[in-house]
Description:
Order of helices and strands: EEEEEEEEEEE
Largest sheet: 7 strands, mixed
Shape: globular
Helix content: under 10%
Structural class: mainly beta
Strand content: over 45%
Radius of gyration: 13 Å
Amino acid sequence: QVQLVESGGGSVQAGGSLRLSCAASGRTASIACMGWWRQVPGKGREVVAQMYVGGDTAYYSDSVKGRFTIAQDNPTNTLYLQMTNLKPEDTAMYYCAAGTIKCVYTYWGQGTQVTVSS
């Protein structure tokens, strides 16, 4: 089993920045892909950014490309999401996820709320 704990969410005005963190523990050696997802009430969960563990390339959704940066610190098993130039439409619950080599996500964190006001 893998446990994921997110932190760093909060409220910010449009144009501001936040950094989310996700601490992974347990059988972390089984993780091949990690990512950040978000969800607003009444809508499905969408992937924001993801990358392979130990890799140096990442995928970003079009809505966040150029504003968000995903990064990992392997020695501490921590995943980050640096969010800049935040917009009200970025308001959502953000989830950290971990999964297999094909980024099939098996493990999810409890989520951290990000609220951006105009």
